[in-house]
């Protein structure tokens, strides 16, 4: 990819978008274009069209989305399907109208069926029913990747879709009602330690298995795909290893230094039993994740304390 390319990172304040901006800066791409939500509402199609007509964008990285953990997805499916469909439709169509040739769309491993053979290969898409706790979000993300495929076929664009596994890292959401499991447990363990609590509550049974990718690895994979001139297709992005939620909780307690018990709250959903991605498609091209979970958890915990500890109640401040 030309170093002078004008690259629009949609969603640059989110965890994925901000990782992309950091990586692009580190790799020496000077022409990165961003807009805050106040400057450009991606739900407003006319505004998105005007933006693309004015800005002469060469590459779009579409990381803007409504995202959330299992409870947010299960309780607000209308927002998750509507906002994601509208954002991706507006951005992809406006990019095509403005003759943007290259675009990377970010989805999620929850697009794959609930009872999927493991590890999950890209071709298992749409082979059986989805996990009900996040089917609305998944349908929106499947629509986004199908938009890319359809536009490539009809209009000769080069729109690629990356499907990362569960992500974590800087600028994650630590709100306990809407976050994913890893940031939620980091925060709970931190607060439990500061409070001297006897136990920490983990939702569900602790038996579901998940895979965790540091968002800086996703940013690296994105640059890899762009720099290797990949022109179409769907690519899983993961580390190729998973662990149970119980094991994750134990690992987090160790990093945080919380020595109490784990309590499991069976009233909360488990979600899909397992979603380990088969990452051989990108591996065959020469890309693999580099940040191990132990290292990633330690750096993420340090960032969490630096960014959030000051906003915790005074009783919780170390
Ligand atoms: P999912 O991968 O789409 O299911 O999303 P999450 O990251 O929200 O949840 C993953 C698994 O972790 C589910 O089985 C949750 O029930 C479990 N889990 C355990 N404790 C928590 C918690 O405090 N917050 C969240 N979001 N999930 C938790």
TrEMBL record:
<dbReference type="Pfam" id="PF01370">
    <property type="entry name" value="Epimerase"/>
</dbReference>
<dbReference type="InterPro" id="IPR028614">
    <property type="entry name" value="GDP_fucose/colitose_synth"/>
</dbReference>
<feature type="site" description="Important for catalytic activity">
    <location>
        <position position="110"/>
    </location>
</feature>
<feature type="active site" description="Proton donor/acceptor">
    <location>
        <position position="137"/>
    </location>
</feature>
<feature type="binding site">
    <location>
        <position position="141"/>
    </location>
    <ligand>
        <name>NADP(+)</name>
    </ligand>
</feature>
<keyword id="KW-0521">NADP</keyword>
<feature type="binding site">
    <location>
        <position position="180"/>
    </location>
    <ligand>
        <name>NADP(+)</name>
    </ligand>
</feature>
<comment type="pathway">
    <text>Nucleotide-sugar biosynthesis; GDP-L-fucose biosynthesis via de novo pathway; GDP-L-fucose from GDP-alpha-D-mannose: step 2/2.</text>
</comment>
<feature type="binding site">
    <location>
        <begin position="11"/>
        <end position="17"/>
    </location>
    <ligand>
        <name>NADP(+)</name>
    </ligand>
</feature>
<feature type="binding site">
    <location>
        <position position="188"/>
    </location>
    <ligand>
        <name>substrate</name>
    </ligand>
</feature>
<feature type="site" description="Important for catalytic activity">
    <location>
        <position position="108"/>
    </location>
</feature>
<dbReference type="GO" id="GO:0042351">
    <property type="term" value="P:'de novo' GDP-L-fucose biosynthetic process"/>
</dbReference>
<feature type="binding site">
    <location>
        <position position="270"/>
    </location>
    <ligand>
        <name>substrate</name>
    </ligand>
</feature>
<feature type="binding site">
    <location>
        <position position="203"/>
    </location>
    <ligand>
        <name>substrate</name>
    </ligand>
</feature>
<keyword id="KW-0511">Multifunctional enzyme</keyword>
<keyword id="KW-0560">Oxidoreductase</keyword>
<protein>
    <recommendedName>
        <fullName>GDP-L-fucose synthase</fullName>
        <ecNumber>1.1.1.271</ecNumber>
    </recommendedName>
</protein>
<dbReference type="GO" id="GO:0016853">
    <property type="term" value="F:isomerase activity"/>
</dbReference>
<dbReference type="InterPro" id="IPR036291">
    <property type="entry name" value="NAD(P)-bd_dom_sf"/>
</dbReference>
<comment type="function">
    <text>Catalyzes the two-step NADP-dependent conversion of GDP-4-dehydro-6-deoxy-D-mannose to GDP-fucose, involving an epimerase and a reductase reaction.</text>
</comment>
<dbReference type="InterPro" id="IPR001509">
    <property type="entry name" value="Epimerase_deHydtase"/>
</dbReference>
<comment type="similarity">
    <text>Belongs to the NAD(P)-dependent epimerase/dehydratase family. Fucose synthase subfamily.</text>
</comment>
<feature type="binding site">
    <location>
        <begin position="164"/>
        <end position="167"/>
    </location>
    <ligand>
        <name>NADP(+)</name>
    </ligand>
</feature>
<keyword id="KW-0413">Isomerase</keyword>
<feature type="binding site">
    <location>
        <position position="210"/>
    </location>
    <ligand>
        <name>substrate</name>
    </ligand>
</feature>
<dbReference type="GO" id="GO:0050577">
    <property type="term" value="F:GDP-L-fucose synthase activity"/>
</dbReference>
<dbReference type="GO" id="GO:0070401">
    <property type="term" value="F:NADP+ binding"/>
</dbReference>
<feature type="domain" description="NAD-dependent epimerase/dehydratase">
    <location>
        <begin position="7"/>
        <end position="238"/>
    </location>
</feature>
């Amino acid at each position: 990819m030309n170093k002078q390319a004008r690259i629009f990172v949609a969603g640059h304040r989110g965890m994925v978008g901000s990782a992309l901006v950091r990586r692009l800066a580190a790799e020496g791409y000077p022409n990165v274009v961003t807009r805050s939500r106040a400057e450009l509402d991606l739900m407003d199609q006319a505004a998105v069209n005007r933006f693309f007509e004015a800005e002469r964008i060469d590459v779009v990285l579409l990381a803007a989305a409504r995202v959330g953990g299992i409870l947010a997805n299960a309780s607000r499916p209308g927002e998750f399907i509507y906002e994601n469909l509208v954002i991706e439709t507006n951005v992809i169509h406006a990019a095509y109208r403005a003759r943007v040739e290259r675009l990377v769309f970010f989805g999620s491993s929850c697009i794959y069926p609930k009872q999927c053979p493991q590890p999950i290969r890209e071709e298992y898409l749409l082979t059986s029913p989805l996990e009900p706790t996040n089917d609305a979000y998944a349908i929106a993300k499947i629509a986004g990747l199908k938009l890319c495929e359809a536009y490539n076929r009809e209009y000769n664009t080069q729109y690629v879709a990356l499907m990362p596994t569960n992500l974590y890292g800087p600028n994650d959401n630590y709100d306990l009602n809407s976050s994913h499991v890893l940031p939620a447990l980091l925060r709970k363990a931190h607060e439990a330690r500061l409070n001297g609590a006897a136990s920490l509550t983990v939702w569900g049974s602790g038996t579901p298995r998940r895979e965790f990718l540091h968002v800086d690895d996703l940013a690296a994979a994105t640059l890899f795909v762009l720099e290797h001139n990949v022109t179409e297709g769907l690519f899983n992005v993961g580390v190729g290893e998973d662990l149970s939620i119980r094991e994750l909780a134990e690992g987090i307690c160790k990093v945080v230094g919380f020595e109490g018990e784990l309590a499991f709250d069976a009233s909360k959903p488990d979600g899909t039993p397992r979603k380990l991605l088969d990452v051989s498609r990108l591996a065959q091209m020469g890309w693999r994740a580099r940040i191990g979970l132990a290292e990633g958890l330690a750096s993420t915990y340090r960032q969490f304390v630096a960014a959030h500890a000051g906003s915790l109640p005074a009783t919780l401040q170390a």
